[in-house]
From TrEMBL:
Name of the protein in its database record: Matrin-type domain-containing protein
Nucleus keyword on record: yes
Annotated Pro residues bias: 233-273, 282-294
Location of the Matrin-type domain: 52-82
Superkingdom of origin organism: Eukaryota
Source taxonomy: Eukaryota, Viridiplantae, Streptophyta, Embryophyta, Tracheophyta
A matching Pfam family: SF3A2
Main localisation: nucleus
Source organism (scientific name): Trapa incisa
Length: 323
């Protein structure tokens, strides 16, 4: 008979203590395989024989399932607790930072308070200021309104803009309200920056002055415009100047004679002349007399003009130059 004594006919028989231990280890192995990653276990090691060792408990295991069942056992868990206690004792005690615990009050908000903002300007100091008047008629008796400045990078409602900052006012049980003001340095001297809480009228007043912007450094004057005729447009209201009167001694309607060019101006270039001849200078025709015309039968002796002596005859053997 292959069954244990004391069991009912047809059943598998009562499990012995050995069979229960085997079944328990198998269940622990399957559970460990689902929850534990052996690649991250610092005590898991495979030796050169192909078996597995536990470096913490110095035990030898035939397969991975046997090692995982061992990690869930009492021996392995006890050694883990001993090692953690020894490391905590050997490590130096580090001072813990003293964290200040702030208890946040949870109250029911009743809405936003009424407010009034007044813009002011000081003509003597050239400073601009703002006057805030916040009304809290239902404020709690022992509490007082509070205020603070907040950078544009602290809030998450509007896009970041470094040109502006926010001024917040808070009082229980009202909601927190904020005002968007320029991100200019604030003058926090005593007579200009002050806050006041009036418990009778339930009004909180705050006044602030902005520091004036530093004056711009003395910039060099712009370079003068070039003195070019026609560079500046003529105003439409001015009429064109009348033409100059004709010079004395000319009949009316005759074109005036060209006068000398103004000082410092460049005379225009002479017009081109065809056939390679030179143009006359601007001062008028030359004073040298032209040569006499040469006719068909006219002869003249070279060198007789301009009272010059006659040229000697050419030497013999060379033909003379005929003019």
């Amino acid at each position: 008979m292959d069954r244990e004594w004391g069991s009912k006919p047809g059943s598998g028989g009562a499990a012995s203590a050995q069979n229960e231990a085997i079944d328990r280890r198998e269940r622990l192995r399957r559970l460990a395989l689902e929850t534990i990653d052996l690649a991250k276990d610092p005590y898991f090691m495979r030796n050169h024989l192909g078996s597995y060792e536990c470096k913490l408990c110095l035990t030898l295991h035939n397969n991975e399932g046997n090692y995982l069942a061992h990690t869930q056992g009492k021996r392995h868990q006890t050694n883990l607790a001993k090692r953690a206690a020894r490391e905590a004792k050997d490590s130096p005690a580090q001072p813990q930072p003293n964290k200040r615990k702030v208890n946040i009050r949870k109250t029911v908000k009743i809405g936003r308070p009424g407010y009034r903002v007044t813009k002011q300007f000081d003509p003597e100091t050239k400073q601009r200021s703002l006057l805030f008047q916040i009304e809290y008629p239902e404020i709690e008796d022992p509490s007082k309104p509070r205020h603070r400045f907040m950078s544009s990078y602290e809030q998450r409602i509007q896009p970041f803009d470094k040109r502006y900052q926010f001024l917040l006012f808070a009082a229980e049980p009202y909601e927190i309200i904020a005002f968007k003001v320029p991100s200019t340095e604030i003058d926090k001297s005593t007579p200009k920056f002050f806050s006041h809480w009036d418990p009778d009228s339930k009004m909180f007043t705050l006044q602030l002055y902005f520091k004036p912007k530093p004056a711009e450094a003395n910039k060099p004057p712009p370079p003068p415009a070039a003195n070019v005729a026609g560079a500046l447009p003529r105003p439409p209201s001015q009429a064109p100047p009348p033409p100059p009167p004709p010079p004395q001694g000319l009949p009316p309607g005759a074109p005036p004679r060209p006068g000398p060019p103004p000082m410092g101006s460049i005379p225009p270039p002479p017009p081109p002349v065809s056939n390679g001849s030179r143009a006359a200078p601007p001062g008028g025709p030359p004073s040298v007399l032209p040569p006499p015309p040469i006719g068909a039968g006219a002869n003249f002796t070279p060198g007789m003009q301009m009272n010059r002596p006659p040229m000697p005859p050419p030497p013999h053997g060379f033909p003379g130059h005929q003019m």
